[in-house]
Amino acid sequence: MWKWLTTLYHRLGSPKWFYQITGRWLPWFAISALVLLSVGLVWGLVYAPMDYQQGNSFRIIYLHVPSAILAQSIYVMMAIAGVVLLVWKMKMADVVAQSMAPIGAGMTFMALATGAIWGVPTWGTWWMWDARLTSMLILFFLYLGLIALREALKPQEVAAKACALLAIVGVINIPIIKYSVDWWYTLHQPATFTLTQKPAMPASMWLPLLIMVLGFYALLGWSVLLRARAEVLLRERKSGWVRETLEKK
Amino acid sequence: MSFDNLSDFLAMGGHGLYVWSSFALGLLILIGNVLLPWLKLKATRNQLQREYRRQANQNTPASASDT
Q: What ranges do the domains of chain B cover?
């Protein structure tokens, strides 16, 4: 298992191998994303029972929770990619980190916006400067900062290192987001999914939510691979394999 | 099914505005996250192919002028 993992790691470090293997992975991510998201959306919108307190506005959970989970886990993945780049100098890690930043920003925006819309009928306000909401807003700015830093710095190697550092330092915000609902008084309800307890809602509500979360992850894979493949081609434009691959078509 | 008919479904028990604006925005972001990278990948491929063709033309000059 360990040997298999190290082989995979070394191969993924090769841009050519990365480009070829991701071309084969792409349709699987695409199909699972489309199937999971359509099932989850229809189930969540049409079949899941209405919440007895919140009514139908609770259905916003089927976008809010998956996007909030992705917003945080994408950031952690970017920080891990940053460590891989700084410690082992693996350049493909930077390609993946760069490709993830706009997706993370989009997910954070979706979590904030759907949360704000959901807040109006549920809390009577669309925004509160409480710990959970504020730390999510900081996460959004961290993503924008990472995108801007990448654009601002030249050459590419310097930008890569600076972004890796910012991603690693900013990861401190993730436990703050996670525990903000326990540490401070907040309007926000605690986590829906935990590893240790059964969800406090019936299966007819949380099953479609779980499907949506998986669908969001599949879409993340699809989106990251598309972006990373374009970036690999650009960065490796001078290598023979890129020319050969593109001239074949 | 939690709704009796289509208009019930659209009304979402009075919460239609919140539910539908959330889902419209969410779907837009999800679709954009696939569509934009896909267009970018296609554009990158085309751009590099043009570059390679231009270089190939420069490396084999005078093909039209000799003879």
A: 6-58
